[in-house]
Specification:
The protein has 295 residues and is of the alpha/beta class. It folds into 2 domains: 162 residues, 3-Layer(aba) Sandwich (Rossmann fold), CATH 3.40.50; 77 residues, 2-Layer Sandwich (Pantoate--beta-alanine Ligase, Chain: A,domain 2). It contains 9 helices and 11 strands. Helix 8 packs antiparallel against helix 9. The radius of gyration is 20 Å and the shape is globular. The termini are far apart. Bound molecules: pantoate. The site of pantoate has 10 residues, from strand 2 and helix 6. Pathway: Cofactor biosynthesis; (R)-pantothenate biosynthesis; (R)-pantothenate from (R)-pantoate and beta-alanine: step 1/1. Its EC number is 6.3.2.1.
């Protein structure tokens, strides 16, 4: 049954004004950032947000800053009308949907000599600054006048950061912008993308945002977990069995890593809490999943 219709806000100043007005009435604001095309995972984040705050804001914005020019931003799926219907069906509903047209479009100044080759992003190694030459994300490719980026330098390096070098820089930057605009009390992220969640948690701590970062949803790599619980602590063995299962299901592994929950560094044997993170291609679709193992 359809519930209340959320207020749809497209202007960032309007969004900020809405949040401030609500807070001045003593309301607390829960925030779920999304790129739209909502599914059950997003709905579970909204349900989680309802446990923390009076009001809920969902943002729907496909962020060009986290796509490199070789990734197809223009074919990213969207169904705004369908999304609103889904939000109306959530118990307790959603109070506002922030749906900006473009959060980088404050000035245009296409640099000369723009190069659309994303391999021009080089990490210099040794923990230093990356060497940036030419375009690194769709924001630079479009010649938008944006040049400030938030980077969580160590946590962004491995796993998804390896295969998508501009991804976490774009996520950290847009989440910072969204936090500044929506000014929520609590923000909820899916633990499905464990690295993203850890990066945002770290960013909130390092940049002193007074926002609580909550999380939801967890799927299972349950066989590896039960093997580990039954004494198999050798990570190579655990990884091999999952890789084999993915391959025999027709997938192609991007990475399968068992890493320390705090540092995200790979471990050889499970001696402390770890998380098993996996990304695999099934045709043109890249899926990610993770499971914490606490033994
Ligand atoms: O997880 C996502 O959908 C996106 O990375 C996010 C957090 C909405 C930022 O664009």
């Amino acid at each position: 049954m359809a519930g209340k219709e959320p207020e749809i806000i497209t202007d960032k100043n309007q969004m900020r004004k809405w949040s401030r007005a609500m807070r001045s009435q003593g309301k607390t604001i829960g925030f779920v950032p999304t790129m739209g095309y909502l599914h059950e995972g997003h709905i579970s984040l909204i349900k989680e947000a309802h446990k923390h705050t009076n009001l809920i804001v969902v943002s729907i914005y496909v962020n060009p800053g986290q796509f490199s020019p070789t990734e197809d931003l223009s074919t990213y799926p969207s169904d705004f009308h369908g999304d609103i219907q889904k939000l109306m069906a959530v118990p307790g509903g959603v109070d506002a949907v922030f749906h900006p047209h473009n959060l980088y479009d404050h000035a245009k100044s296409k640099p000369t000599g723009v190069n659309t080759n994303s391999s021009n992003y080089h990490n210099s190694g040794g923990g230093g600054e990356p060497e940036r030459k030419g375009v690194v994300s769709c924001v630079e490719e479009r010649g938008l006048g944006h040049e400030t980026w938030v980077r969580v330098e160590r946590l962004e390096k491995g796993m998804c950061g390896k295969s998508r070098p501009v991804f976490f820089r774009g996520v950290a930057t847009i989440v910072t912008k969204l936090f500044n605009i929506v000014e929520p009390d609590v923000a909820v992220f899916g633990k499905k993308d464990y690295q993203q969640w850890r990066i945002i948690q770290q960013m909130v701590r390092d940049l002193d945002f007074s926002i609580e970062v909550a999380l939801s949803i967890n799927r299972s790599l349950s066989r590896a977990k039960s093997d580990a619980e039954n004494g198999q602590i050798n990570c190579m063995e655990l990884r091999n069995s999952v890789i084999q299962a993915v391959n025999s299901a027709g997938g192609r592994i991007d990475y399968a890593e068992i890493v320390d929950q705090e540092t995200l560094e790979a471990v050889e044997e499970i001696q402390s809490p770890v998380v098993f993170c996996i990304a695999a291609w099934f045709g043109k679709v890249r899926l990610i999943d993770n499971l914490e193992i606490n033994i």
